[in-house]
């Protein structure tokens, strides 16, 4: 057992853990941040391969998102390029221009006149619609009432997948989709040299304000309750701490805490469904078809983007980093091999001859894009309950954070927000423990 007792031990140095560490340490708490991996960042890390920076699948920062505001508040300013609108819309028969403006929609050969009118009405209406007014409906239910034409409906589903990275219209709350779609209208950035630069800046900030950040430390158990808690590491070390904040997925935290299925953590695990995607990350010597830098498929859940068209991601200026992605559905079991073939065929269609230009590639068959889909039920619960899902009330001193938390944000933004919110909650709770203790002594 190590002698020192920490105020808060944080499990996981992804965006949620790093954010919480900075807020807690700068408020004067003794913070220990333990990361299993050999580097910081979790799913926001970047790999450098042959002079090319590959994020873990396509990663974009929402210009008006809560995450960027939090980063600025913490003194971190990502260096990034803004994505310019434009690209291709692929159908089974043809490759069209992506209709992202009223004029583009008008001249698109992809939709009937009736569908164009319907889409124009829909896109104008939803840019102003209050997302909360449709939170009680699934995307499918809402879309059924809002759009009749098949291609018009498919187009909105493609935009919904693009904004939310999910392909579960029968579960996801329409309110979440609309909020995220509206956010994406404000624009997105691709980060120069990848998201690792943001992660490293956050890590440096955490260390500056006094957090003890350690990599290569796998937590294997969480025991006890506030203020006598223990975190056990894989090498057998036991760490004494008043509080534990876990940013591992709810199911991993359930195992670490050895919780009962009927406990709050058990119920949470039943409720939270992760969202997965298949990612093909590719670096090429040059782009065979330089006119196509971005594409969506109308009928299939495919995405393509040349991120180096916007951000500096290669040491050699001619080289390019592409991300090709399939949004996996929560209901369907899919084959990793077939998904890879589909992604490669999509790339063949957009960039014929790409294999001759290959520098390096990486295939991630089933990566969790977010650890929890904001379903109608979870969004409703989050509005109605006073105690958030992140406070494990049947295990005082145990807290949770991560991108699975339902707040007004999604994806990385949800991770940053949950990290900030739980840090604020822990500080308030510690303060009330302190006043109770001093009050009792008086
Ligand atoms: C393919 C893909 C594309 C994405 N695109 C976007 C995008 O365009 N825009 C966007 O905003 N978001 C995007 N995201 C989502 C974003 O990357 C995540 O929401 C965010 O990185 C999650 O941060 P987190 O801290 O919640 O979780 P994680 O990054 O998973 O961090 C949890 C950390 O805990 C550590 N850990 C787990 N168990 C233990 C243990 N027992 N002991 C010690 N450490 C442990 C893990 O190693 C990990 O580092 C994308 C994600 C993926 C996968």
Q: What is the strand and helix layout of this fold?
A:
Blueprint: E1 5-11, H1 15-26, E2 31-34, E3 46-49, E4 52-55, E5 61-62, H2 66-73, E6 80-82, E7 88-90, E8 95-97, H3 102-107, H4 113-128, H5 139-146, H6 150-164, H7 174-185, E9 188-191, H8 196-208, E10 212-214, E11 219-225, E12 228-233, E13 238-246, H9 250-256, H10 264-271, E14 275-284, E15 294-297, E16 302-306, E17 320-327, H11 336-350, E18 358-370, H12 376-384, E19 398-400, H13 411-441
Parallel strand pairs: 1-2, 1-13, 2-10, 7-15, 13-19
Antiparallel strand pairs: 3-4, 5-9, 6-9, 7-8, 11-12, 12-13, 14-17, 14-18, 15-16, 16-17
Helix pairs in contact: 1-8, 1-13, 2-13, 4-6, 6-7, 9-10
The protein binds flavin-adenine dinucleotide (FAD).
- Proper CATH architecture of the largest domain: 3-Layer(bba) Sandwich
Which regions contain 5 or more consecutive residues with pLDDT less than 50?
none
Category from helices, strands and their pairing:
alpha/beta
Which kinds of small molecule does this entry bind, naming each only once? Answer: flavin-adenine dinucleotide
**Coarse shape:** globular
* Biggest sheet features: 7 strands, mixed
**Termini separation:** 33 Å
Q: Class of the largest domain, according to the CATH hierarchy? A: Alpha Beta
Number of domains: 3
What is the alpha-carbon Rg in Å? 23 Å
- Give the count of helical stretches: 13
Mean pLDDT: 95
- CATH topology category name of the largest domain: FAD/NAD(P)-binding domain
The CATH superfamily name of the largest domain is FAD/NAD(P)-binding domain
Protein name: Phytoene dehydrogenase-like protein
Domain Amine oxidase: 15-251
Pfam family, one: Amino_oxidase
Family: Belongs to the carotenoid/retinoid oxidoreductase family. CrtN subfamily.
